[in-house]
Design brief:
Blueprint (H helix, E strand, L loop, with lengths): L2 H39 L5 H8 L2 H29 L9 H27 L4
Helix pairs in contact: 1-3, 3-4
């Protein structure tokens, strides 16, 4: 593989991550606006209204997308932060192991969050 291909591949992955970050951010802002709008429109909000709102199929689907967006957004963001601060040699010979443990830990925590959220949304918990 020549240097041009390596640079193009890394640029493409970086561009995909950048675009996915922006897409998930827009989705999360839309979800937040939807919930805020519900509270502004439904003046006497009680438990029955909340249950009806969040158990409607469109809201369950939108909430599922929001949980998956948080997983994706958090995964990309935290892995980039990890790569910025866990540099090869920064922690001696343990840098590679620390970076790998960090990456796996981030994925486990975010996956658990997404699975738990989806279980709650779809009443599987």
């Amino acid at each position: 593989m020549d240097l041009g291909s390596v640079i193009a591949t890394r640029f493409e992955k970086g561009l995909n991550d950048f675009l996915l970050q922006r897409l998930t951010a827009v989705l999360l802002v839309s979800y937040t606006a939807c919930i805020v709008g519900f509270f502004l429109v439904a003046s006497p909000v009680d438990h029955a209204h909340l249950v009806e709102f969040f158990q409607s199929l469109p809201m369950q689907l939108f909430s599922s997308l929001a949980f998956l967006a948080v997983w994706s957004h958090g995964s990309i963001g935290l892995l980039i932060v990890g790569k910025d601060y866990i540099k090869p040699g920064a922690f001696g010979g343990a840098s590679v192991w620390i970076a790998q443990i960090y990456e796996v830990g981030v994925q486990i925590v975010l996956l658990a969050y997404a699975v738990w959220g989806l279980a709650v949304i779809w009443d599987l918990a």
